[in-house]
Amino acid sequence: MPLQDRPTKAFQSFFKSSFGFPKFKRKGVKDSYSTNNQKGTIAVTSRSVKLPKIGHIKAKIDRVINGLIKSATVSKAPSGKYFVSVLVETLAEPLPKTQRNVGIDLGLTDFIVLSDATSVTNPKFLASIEKKLACEQRILAKRRTVAKAESRKLSESSIYVLRKRL
Questions:
Q1: How far is it, in rounded angstroms, from Cα 74 to Cα 86?
Q2: What are phi and psi of 121, to 5 degrees?
Q3: How many helices (H) and strands (E) does the chain have?
Q4: What pairing do the DSSP bridges indicate for beta strands 119-120 and 112-114?
Q5: Vertex 3, ends 77 and 20: CA angle to 5°?
Q6: pLDDT: is 47 or 163 the higher one?
């Protein structure tokens, strides 16, 4: 069908039946497609995803698929990378009831403090800040030795003043 006839057909369908008003779909806004699993057309292995009409595609799988695969959606991110979301039907096991209530407090010094005095820290955040601090302190120490060798104060150094403004 020629490109010029598509809007005409869309409006004719709109007036003849209850399809709804035609919507303009721009390329690149939500580039994705979904496909259903019919007789094993979608499969996930340790290093690839099998899709119908495409075949096996190399992929980085971040978790194990447990259960029946229902469908897969392939979407393109603005960065140009492709992602596959797999819908899986699994049996949910209910957790045992403990007959206890716990209050949760989100804090600044500790990430979480529970009402039974248990505290949970966030080591990932702390570790990343410690690495950055150590790196900045090494740079400052090198600048201090250069300033001392040139017999001037660190605060008078042009590099230090420039870095301080940033």
A1: 9
A2: -95, 165
A3: 3, 9
A4: antiparallel
A5: 75
A6: 47
Model's pTM, two decimal places?
Answer: 0.47
How many whole angstroms separate alpha carbon 32 and alpha carbon 159?
A: 49
pLDDT tens-digit readout, 62-118: 888 889 999 999 988 877 888 999 999 999 889 999 888 889 998 877 889 998 888
Select from 85, 97, 100 the least CA-distant residue to 44.
85
Q: State residue 8 phi and psi, 5-degree precision.
A: -65, -45
For residue 41, give both structure tokens: 């057309």
The tokens for 68 are 């029946």
Contact criterion met (CB below 8 Å) for 21 and 7: no
Q: Quick count: other Cβ atoms within 10 Å of Cβ 49?
A: 20
Burial group, residue 72, by CB count within 10 angstroms (0-12, 13-18, 19+): buried
Of 49, 50, 47, 42, whose CA–CA distance to 71 is shortest?
42
Q: Are 14 and 21 in contact (CB under 8 A)?
A: yes
